[in-house]
Specification:
Radius of gyration of chain B: 21 Å
Shape of chain B: globular
Chains: A mainly alpha, B alpha/beta, C mainly alpha
Radius of gyration of chain A: 23 Å
Oligomer: heterotrimer
Largest interface: A-C, 113 and 125 residues
Structural class of chain B: alpha/beta
Number of strands of chain A: 0
Number of strands of chain B: 10
Number of helices of chain B: 16
Helix content of chain B: 25-40%
Strand content of chain B: 5-15%
Structural class of chain A: mainly alpha
Chain lengths: ~300, ~450, ~300
């Protein structure tokens, strides 16, 4: 996100994009142990609670504070509340993946095209659209969710509550990810490369496809992964515009059952499954990035990681 | 095992009671023409009726001033009260189904219920018996459910509403009159429910559950005599005191503490006094949630305004080694406590009215009701379900026998019923001021 | 930059419009239009039947009833929104500063000094992203229980270990906000700091600046736009947050503006007031949003 502002630091010349990560290999300064210790502490603080939550999804008992022995009964087995044995949980898992898949497939292409379009089509209209897009990024989600509910139930009633309305809302809520990230990248790249391609006789579309798209790939990857992750996590919009249980994803199910309904470890198990799906996407994004940039000199683990984290 | 009331959460609070959002003034309804299709109503209420309604909400006192008290509305169907029972009309365009029909084949029974308020094992057995599938969809507040049903887009068969939304449900024809020939098990219910004041002749409803409101406390931590005043005496227990997240229950608690027994009051002075009483609770760091059944046994909360059904299940959440004796649930022995019951109805939007009837009947079977009880903790008002039986079958520890609701409660208890619109807004406004702004 | 692309630009105009169109339509229909629906609700009334709000679509007929009611709840004698607003400011202010104090050193370290372990550190920094927000809060609820790990840890180092962290404490709410939103801030800061041209720092060092002076005179000024952007990105959702304090405290004494809005949207007959309050909040948030847009525009002008 911040790259919209942060980018100019390295933007003076378009060439800087390629050069910007080149840094002396060895660190000229001594290692700041204090800073490193602080960082390690932070990481422990940020991850340990999650680890505990995952751990307790394997608890034999129902407690989330007292360990009562290892068991996978919250995942599989005859236990009525296990994820495998509960159709409600099945449905939620399927719906989560369906929403995340549909939203990503619709949102990313639209968002990328939108970013290229408004970046190159300079004018009042594109400026206005850009502002609308940034609005959609910062508006409180509850507000958008309730407004969407009113829209689809009172004005645009052909958008049915349920998956249709959910995807419609999730796409608009997440559109700003690809739009902002890709646009920031476009600002950095500048037009030099396209112009060079045009000078060499490439058509405009050809220049976009052959020159611009490869350079945008990291940004597109980043937004794909982010849209997917953010959709999996979404709850406010989906809760508002869902209809039957079949259209309620895991987040809504977990949220409405916390401290009630399903027992704690079942929720932890569900969350662990969500975590698993997110990680799969992250790993796919990472591997795909490494594969697409194979042969490039500077493509390394760090590059791939920063790309899939939207940085 | 899983009482209906659970987590209270931003955006999805659950309120099992006559819920906010649902008190309807029949006068307004008749103004718009009773029985008019819902769509027309939604469109027709536009600016005039609507703005008038909003106007009544202004500040607690201001809003309530415009409500002129009486529970019964002039010229229309009165608001249901024990002394003004209501017999709903049967519209020619919304008749009961014929008798003796075969259950729908290859059907999916659609159930719309509160979160964690039914034992799915019971539904599964039902489906085995009638060879159908089922889908259980849940909601968290009655407002949410009514808003979604109001769109006309949801096709459910069975719905579990509170009493106070019955008016809108009947008059918008969202629910179908029952064909009683499918529901012989009504004979199992308390006799009162064959002719309840809110639905004379049980034309549209059967009872689902009944529960009282009271105080739950930790006997090992709290040294107070149980009473409605407990939260106000809780200075020693700062941070360990919580109220239920429900505008009717919260304000009713303050009314009861001050000895006011009209829990459907429209008197602005009383409502305002209740608000002031609640405001005093800031000194004990009062919390507001519906986790009575988990937080009391785990010790997160020591004094909790609570529902009987929640507390009946609470012992299952005790940490290992903590005796059941530490749990207490008090509701006034003179029965001057909030008592409420929920309903089962058949929605007109559903595709399986016969299965819906059979399901309603199935849930009134004593064996099934008890199986349901083991999961939700809320009891159904069936004659055969008594405290001795529940204790004997080890479904309820004797220490929590105070959670059992007796038939006399339905007659002598204080029901939280539908309020006239402006009074309802005043209740809500007062509660919001306390719960969100303190 | 060369100016020879003017004709190309004109020729390409249709292409650009075509590319932007799907996104633009989606935004207009599903973002701007709902926003108008929100205005119509704010200026609308109530359906007396279901006590749901009834929007008035014609702006000329919008009523100010909801507006005046909200206004009287903010400034009037029975005002109750004020304390929640004040708490929102204090909580988000402290949480933002605390987040920055934690996030900056971490981002700075990983971007400049992590060396060979950079990839590992990045994986760990990104990890919280992949866990649902609510689940992370729940993890803390378990830890913060009176018999929970956090209190046990405190007592093991000799501190009072029986604090009721979940009993309506402001500090717990602030901790929840920091924990919830800091991963975003760190990633933004990391991206900004990592983008700073290393040769600038080398130059500063070659000119004889000490490590600290290089940091203060070069790194910090260069990362200022990143800090501002990162702060927006964490503060804006914090202001609209209504579930964190609900999860961590649930006490009326710790509510924020989001809870007031949420309470009104939930309560029958008050949806209109909730819409008014939401719109008011949005107008207040417009100030940082416009600043963000302007600085973005200026930045791209300067470097285009």
């Amino acid at each position: 996100m911040a790259s919209v502002i942060g980018e100019p630091v390295s933007a003076p010349a378009a060439g800087a994009v390629i050069e910007r990560r080149r840094r002396p290999l060895g660190n000229p300064w001594r290692r700041p142990w204090g800073l490193e210790g602080f960082t390690v502490l932070y990481i422990a603080w940020s991850i340990l609670p999650i680890a505990v939550a995952v751990l307790f999804s394997f608890n034999k008992g129902a407690s989330q504070a007292t360990w009562q022995g290892f068991s996978t009964k919250w995942y599989v087995g005859g236990w009525i509340q296990s994820v495998a044995n509960n159709p409600e949980l099945h449905q939620a898992v399927i719906q989560t993946l369906r929403l995340a898949g549909l939203t990503t497939v619709i949102c990313v292409p639209i968002g990328v095209a939108f970013a290229i379009g408004i970046d190159r089509w300079r004018g009042r209209t594109s400026g206005g659209l850009n502002i609308v897009m940034i609005f959609s990024f910062v508006i409180p989600e509850l507000l958008l969710a309730v407004a969407l509910f009113m829209l689809v139930t009172q004005l645009l009633t052909f958008i049915a509550l349920g998956t249709t309305a959910e995807v419609a809302g999730l796409v608009v809520w997440n559109l700003s990810w690809p739009a902002i990230i890709v646009r920031a990248r476009l600002v950095t790249i500048g037009k030099t490369y396209e112009e060079a391609a045009a000078d060499l006789g490439a058509s405009q579309l050809g220049a976009i496809r052959r020159v611009l798209m490869p350079m945008l790939m990291p940004a597109i990857f980043a937004s794909t992964v982010l849209v997917f992750a953010s959709t999996i996590d979404d709850f406010v919009i989906v809760e508002q515009v869902s209809s039957t249980a079949a259209t309620q994803p895991m987040s809504v199910l977990i949220y409405s059952n916390v401290h009630g309904g399903l027992q704690g470890p079942a929720l932890n198990a569900l969350a662990t499954i969500m975590l698993f799906f997110s990680l799969v996407v992250a790993v796919i994004g990472y591997v795909a990035y490494r594969w697409m940039t194979r042969g490039e000199r500077k493509a390394g683990a760090t590059e791939a990681l920063t790309s899939i984290a939207g940085m | 095992m899983h009482p209906r009331e659970g987590w209270s959460e931003g955006g999805i609070r659950r309120r099992p009671e006559p819920d906010e959002g649902d008190a309807i003034s029949r006068r307004q309804l008749l103004g718009a023409g009773a029985g008019v299709a819902l769509g027309a109503l939604l469109a027709g209420c536009g600016s005039s009726g609507g703005t008038g309604g909003t106007g009544g909400a202004g500040g607690g006192a201001g809003g309530a001033t415009s409500s002129s008290g009486a529970a019964s509305m002039s010229g229309g169907i009165p608001l249901a009260r024990p002394n003004t029972p209501v017999k709903w009309p049967i519209y020619s365009s919304n008749k009961p189904i014929a008798s003796g029909l075969k259950p729908e084949q290859n059907a999916t029974l659609q159930i719309y219920n509160w979160v964690a308020y039914i034992n799915e094992a019971v539904i599964k057995n039902f489906c085995k018996k009638y060879n159908c599938k089922y889908q259980l969809t849940t909601f968290n507040t009655m407002s949410e459910a009514m808003a979604k049903l109001g769109t006309g887009q949801l096709k459910f068969d069975v719905f579990i509403p509170t009493i106070d939304v019955l008016g809108p449900l009947v008059e918008s024809k969202l629910i179908r009159p029952l064909n009683q020939s499918y529901i012989p098990n009504i004979a199992n219910a308390w006799p009162d429910y064959r002719n309840p004041f809110y639905d004379q002749g049980w034309q549209y409803t059967t009872p689902y559950s009944i529960y009282t409101t009271g105080m739950a406390w930790r006997k090992d931590k709290v040294n107070l005599a149980p009473s409605w005043n407990m939260p106000w005496e809780g200075a020693k227990y700062k941070g360990k005191v919580a109220l239920l997240d429900d505008y009717r229950e919260g304000i009713s608690l303050a009314l009861l503490r001050d000895g006011k027994l009209d829990l459907n009051t429209t008197d602005p002075a009383q409502i305002q006094a209740a608000g002031s009483a609640l405001a005093q609770l800031s000194s004990v760091n009062i919390r507001i949630d519906n986790n009575d059944y988990t937080d009391v046994p785990t010790g997160k909360t020591w004094i909790h305004h609570a529902w009987s059904g929640d507390m009946a299940a609470s012992y299952q959440y005790l940490p290992k080694g903590t005796p059941i004796d530490v749990l207490g649930y008090w509701t006034p022995p003179d029965k001057k406590a909030p008592v409420n019951n929920d309903l089962m109805v058949n929605l007109t939007g559903g595709a399986n009215p016969v299965l819906a009837h059979l399901f309603i009947n199935y849930m009134l079977d004593v064996h099934n009701a008890i199986e349901n009880y083991t999961y939700v903790g809320y009891m159904q008002p069936l004659t055969a379900v008594t405290a001795p039986r529940l204790i004997k079958e080890k479904l309820l520890p004797p220490q929590l026998s105070s959670t059992v609701v007796l038939p006399s409660y339905f007659r002598e208890g204080l029901l939280e019923l539908e309020l006239p619109e402006s009074a309802n807004l005043a209740w809500e406004d007062t509660w919001n001021k306390f719960s969100k702004g303190l | 930059m060369r100016g020879s692309s003017r004709t190309d630009h004109r020729r390409g105009r249709l292409l650009w419009i075509g590319l932007a169109a799907p996104g633009a339509i989606w935004l207009l229909v599903l973002f701007v239009l709902p926003f108008y629906a929100m205005l119509s609700v704010a200026g609308g009334g109530i359906n007396a039947f279901f006590q749901t709000s009834v929007p008035i679509w014609n702006p000329l007929h919008w009523s100010t009833a909801n507006l005046s009611m909200v206004w009287s709840n903010i400034v009037g004698s029975g005002a109750f929104i004020g304390p929640a607003m004040l708490r929102t400011l204090i909580y988000t202010g402290i949480a933002a500063l605390l987040s920055l104090a934690i996030a900056y050193p971490v981002a700075y370290f990983v971007s400049r000094y992590a060396g060979r372990r950079k990839a590992l550190y990045l994986v760990l920094l990104i990890a919280p992203f992949w866990v649902s927000y609510m689940m992370r809060m729940l993890a803390w609820i378990d830890l913060l229980q009176q018999g929970g790990f956090f209190n046990k840890a405190l007592s093991s180092v000799g501190l009072p270990g029986n604090t009721d962290w979940l009993g309506g404490k402001s500090v717990t709410v602030i901790l929840g906000l920091v924990y919830g939103y800091i991963p975003y801030l760190i990633l933004v800061l990391y991206a900004g700091l990592d983008r700073i041209d290393g040769s600038l720092l080398d130059a500063a060092r070659d000119l004889g600046l000490s490590r600290w002076r290089t940091f203060w005179r070069v790194t910090v000024p260069l990362s200022k736009p990143t800090i501002i952007a990162g702060t927006f990105i964490t503060v804006l959702p914090m202001i609209g947050d209504y579930y964190t304090n609900q999860l961590m405290s649930a006490a009326p004494g710790t509510t924020m503006i989001g809870n007031v809005i949420e309470g009104q949207l939930e309560a029958a007959g008050q949806t209109g007031q909730g819409a008014v309050l939401s719109l008011m909040l949005l107008i207040v948030l417009l100030i940082p949003m416009i600043y963000y847009v302007i600085s973005t525009a200026r930045a791209s002008r300067e470097y285009a």
